Predict the 3D structure of the following.
Amino acid sequence: MGLNDKVSAERVHIGFFGLRNAGKSSVVNAVTGQSLSLVSETKGTTTDPVQKAMELLPIGPVVIIDTPGIDDVGTLGEMRVKRALQVLDKTDIAILVVDAEKGLLQADQELLTLFAEKKIPHITVYNKSDLLATVPSRPEKQQEKNHAIYVSAKNGDQICELKERIGALATAVSAKADEKRILADLIQPEDVVVLVVPIDSAAPKGRLILPQQQTIRDVLESGAISVVTRETELPQTLRALGKKPALVITDSQAFQKVNADTPADVPLTSFSILFARYKGDLKEAVHGAAQLDKLQNGDTVLISEGCTHHRQCGDIGTVKLPNWIRNYTGKELSFEFTSGGEFPEDLSPYALVVHCGGCMLNDREMKARIARAVAQNVPITNYGICIAQVHGILKRSVELFSDVAAELQ
């Protein structure tokens, strides 16, 4: 596998956690074979999570994340600890680095508890084994023998064994992720799938946005026929086809026009709705869309994107969606916006969260955001479902998914 085989959101995310001066950064550098993180005897050298997409043999494409010490102190220290804990929301495999001379401390035990609560596969790494008179055959008080190892980042002792263990966990995580497909279960070989792709001024010339690329690839891998057109040429495209398409998929911004131009007997959905199912919770998002009919004057809606990009005139998140929602509800509403890694811990100020499809977030982080909203009883939906609702075509756009469609009956 090469570095470009997988986008960051589809790679296994490996997070390194532990106390200050346990040697997290040294272990990261030893495992990766690079000076990825600064190393110093001074406590708190790592002040922010350090994240890098790379190829790690024998594992393949991964994202490595080094985090600040979980025992940092002071006002800034508390902020660093908070950021370290936020990394758990996108961690597929956790590496707990422990100072072998000190052994497991209370803060380490608390991290292990968090790993268990969040169902994150993990390995406990007892670093600085070179400082021990005798290296134990297995860590004391460590019940899961196969999930713990003594290493020396300084001398390289057992680093290859550690990489093999990480690789075994990563293989299991990747295999589970590879079972998920965007739309393979909805189509058959030789089906014709029409993908409606407006030319987005925000996308660089010569490129399609990521959900479009990934959907086209999934169609091809399914042995089906992918036909790509703009919304302006959709009627001509449908007339030119030799048979009725099995499915039309559109960019959400063109939903209204594409709905009008697509025959009623042809299934229609959007890239965003497919991603709500692929990397999120489609049923929860449909429930969240019902909140649009319950919004009141003065309510605040949070619109959140998983990526960051230069905002342009007519931006979907900050311009089009607020206007569509205002027109649909007829209410005086306030809107707040977040992007990238920012997503509020406290969602109580919001009557509704409208999230993007999450193509730039990994599956675990997208699901963690949804779970946070559900736990706080704040309805959450996504761009495509919200747009379908405000244009009166939500029922049609989810008919493909019988369990979800039943919720709208």
Notes: The chain has 14 helices and 14 strands. The longest strand covers residues 12-18. Residues 284-408 form a domain with the Rossmann fold fold (CATH 3.40.50.11410). The CA atoms of residues 124 and 143 lie 11 Å apart.
